[in-house]
């Protein structure tokens, strides 16, 4: 997906937005005085400076007639990976590490063209087994390896 | 003799059975990941961080350091054999290393890289042991104003020496600083920027932010992209360099070590800058500059020594001042904080086993690299053959486990996803993520020093200019900014990076 926007225009806009966001949230905090600063003081300053830098980047991009080319976002892989990550967070407590790893591996593999589904599945199973052994059996991370409902 | 006693303390930690075991594991795993194209030290350390949660702090750091130089060496192997740099510091190794490989001298190129790295590693370990305590003594005299100014200088230097737009990098630092402030304010105990989410009260999880920006973002950018690979499948023979090879590489190794040791100390310096600089230097000094790019052994020996020396000396400002000079050191600070150790001059005093153990383990780790990697080269070639389409789903799964296990809930993974997307956006906008990570790590302490300095200075910002040392540091920072903003030097800076990328 190619957006008809110049990189530096978007970057400058993004900096300004983040700077303004943090600055305005800082204003909800006690600002304090220079000798006894409240929690809002430092982030307010940083946010404002960020805003100025953003404006600088933004305006320079316009003046030079759009430096840096247009923005190219890889929407499909980004969406697939996002789904895979959220799936991991949701599935892990319910299915345990081994099954979750297999599913998330297969899901995220869909972000790129694959040659054979069988191959992906096979690698997923091997990785899940290794991961289960290393992290749960070996390092004893407090994560269930197998679906907890099997043992309840 | 102090130094000797100290090294002895270190040796007791590092050369113990467990110390050696974790250094070995770290180096082997690091190399295995570093060999994979597109995965460098930052991704390797972030991905393997969960492995060290349960260890004692000194063993955890020894293992992480092993992962670091292992992955760096692995990156060189990939550059030589496949012509795809595993990470940015081995970009220049591709130029001559891969040409050597195509001429059937892959073994010699690999051995040159290993020998150069080992020599540089040994020299820089001695440098660290000698200089770090001296720097720590100076750092003990720093007040909050000096620390604040030092951090400004560190961040400015990091921007000036890294590549890409300086103004945009400054912006990324500020974003990092702000993100670092999310969570409970230490002074007032109030919540800042947490949107009342209890999961954010302890701040944004460090593993999620680094894995997202460096791991997931890279996966999104590379998944499904056809890479043109040129793997050398021939059996690799003739590992030992000949007498004439040795004669040609020796001066390059010495110069590379010197360049790297120095540049590693600078903020923003480190492995990438020093390997580029060393390559440029070797080419300039060579009597046959035309041979560069066609398999000149100096073009491998110099940069490889330089990047290893720099990766090690960059530990000096990190260990003694708590100031990260690059993304890898930011990660090491994060890892130390997870083990409740705040990097700074006090570490060598309160935690001598950790401090000296880490230093001695660096030398030992380099020895493992040399002894182990050359015989294991056949295995690394096999690892190299793993196609990216099967590799990236594994990266996703490992990142998830890392982000989940920090706090044991799914919130870390949502953060990971958020920062992965943000990282992809940043890459699309050509905003470098490394300065953000530096700012993130320094954010809380910068605010703290700023507050304290202003309190001492009675609310007058002039305190930063009236304290002499602080003034010098700030003046240097201003000078660096000005110098690099000048068009002439800006062009030179751009050229220095283009040199290797052509």
TrEMBL record, chain A:
Keywords: Membrane, Transmembrane, Transmembrane helix. The chain crosses the membrane at residues 9-27, 39-59, 80-111, 117-139. Residues 10-144 form the DUF1468 domain. InterPro entries: DUF1468. This is Tripartite tricarboxylate transporter TctB family protein. It comes from Azospirillum endophyticum.
From TrEMBL, chain B:
The keyword Membrane applies. Keywords: Membrane, Transmembrane, Transmembrane helix. Residues 21-438 form the DUF112 domain. The chain crosses the membrane at residues 20-49, 109-132, 144-162, 169-186, 206-226, 321-341, 353-374, 471-489. InterPro entries: DUF112_TM. This is Tripartite tricarboxylate transporter permease. It comes from Azospirillum endophyticum.
């Amino acid at each position: 997906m190619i957006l008809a926007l110049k990189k530096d225009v978007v970057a400058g806009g993004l900096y300004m937005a983040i700077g303004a966001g943090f600055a305005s949230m800082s204003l909800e905090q006690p600002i304090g005085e220079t000798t006894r600063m409240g929690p809002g003081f430092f982030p307010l300053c940083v946010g404002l400076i960020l805003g100025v830098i953003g404006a600088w980047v933004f305006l320079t991009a316009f003046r030079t007639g759009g430096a840096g080319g247009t923005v190219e976002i890889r929407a499909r892989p980004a969406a697939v990976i996002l789904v895979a990550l959220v799936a991991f967070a949701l599935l892990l407590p319910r299915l345990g590490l081994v099954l979750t790893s297999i599913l998330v591996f297969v899901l995220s593999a869909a972000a790129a063209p694959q040659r054979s589904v069988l191959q992906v599945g096979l690698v997923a199973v091997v990785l899940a087994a290794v991961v289960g052994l290393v992290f749960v059996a070996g390092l004893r991370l407090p994560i269930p390896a197998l679906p907890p409902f099997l043992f309840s | 003799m102090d130094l000797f006693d100290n090294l002895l303390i270190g040796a007791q930690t590092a050369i113990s059975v467990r110390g050696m075991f974790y250094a070995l594991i770290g180096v082997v795993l690091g190399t295995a990941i570093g060999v994979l194209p597109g995965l460098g030290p930052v991704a390797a350390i972030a991905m393997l961080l969960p492995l060290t949660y349960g260890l004692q702090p000194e063993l955890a750091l020894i293992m992480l350091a092993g992962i670091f130089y292992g992955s760096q060496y692995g990156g060189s192997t990939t550059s030589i054999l496949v012509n795809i740099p595993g990470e940015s510091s081995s970009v220049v190794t591709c130029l001559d290393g891969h040409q050597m490989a195509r001429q059937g001298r892959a073994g010699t190129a690999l051995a040159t890289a290993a020998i150069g790295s080992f020599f540089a590693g040994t020299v820089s370990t001695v440098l660290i042991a000698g200089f770090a305590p001296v720097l720590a003594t100076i750092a003990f005299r720093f007040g909050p104003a000096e620390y604040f100014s030092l951090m400004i200088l560190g961040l400015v230097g990091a921007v000036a020496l890294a590549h890409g737009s300086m103004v945009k990098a400054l912006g990324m630092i500020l974003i990092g600083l702000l993100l670092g402030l999310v969570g409970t304010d230490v002074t007032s105990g109030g919540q800042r920027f947490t949107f009342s989410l209890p999961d954010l009260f302890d701040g944004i999880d460090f593993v999620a932010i680094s894995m997202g920006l460096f791991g997931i973002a890279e996966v999104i950018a590379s998944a499904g992209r056809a890479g043109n690979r040129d793997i050398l499948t021939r059996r690799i023979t003739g590992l030992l360099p000949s007498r004439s090879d040795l004669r040609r590489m020796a001066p390059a190794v010495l110069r590379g070590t010197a360049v790297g040791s120095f540049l590693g100390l600078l903020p923003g310096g480190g492995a990438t800058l020093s390997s580029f600089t060393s390559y440029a230097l070797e080419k300039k000094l060579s009597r046959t500059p035309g041979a560069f790019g066609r398999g000149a052994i100096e073009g491998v020996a110099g940069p490889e020594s330089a990047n290893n020396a720099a990766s090690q000396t960059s530990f000096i400002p990190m260990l003694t001042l708590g100031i990260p000079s690059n993304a890898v050191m930011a990660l090491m600070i994060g890892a130390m904080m997870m083990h409740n150790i705040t990097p700074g001059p006090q570490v060598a005093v309160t935690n001598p086993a950790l401090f000296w153990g880490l230093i001695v383990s660096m030398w030992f780790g380099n020895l493992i690299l040399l002894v182990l990697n050359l015989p294991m080269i056949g295995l690394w070639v096999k690892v190299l053959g793993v196609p990216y389409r099967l590799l990236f789903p594994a990266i996703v799964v490992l990142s998830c486990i890392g982000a989940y296990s920090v706090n044991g809930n799914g919130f870390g993974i949502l953060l990971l996803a958020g920062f992965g997307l943000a990282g992809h956006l940043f890459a699309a906008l050509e905003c470098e993520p490394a300065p953000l990570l530096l700012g993130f790590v320094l954010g809380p302490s910068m605010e703290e020093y700023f507050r304290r300095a202003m309190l001492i200075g009675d609310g007058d910002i002039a305190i930063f200019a009236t304290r002499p040392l602080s003034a010098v540091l700030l003046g240097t920072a201003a000078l660096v900014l000005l110098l690099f903003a000048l068009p002439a030097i800006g062009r030179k800076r751009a050229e220095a990076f283009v040199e290797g990328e052509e």
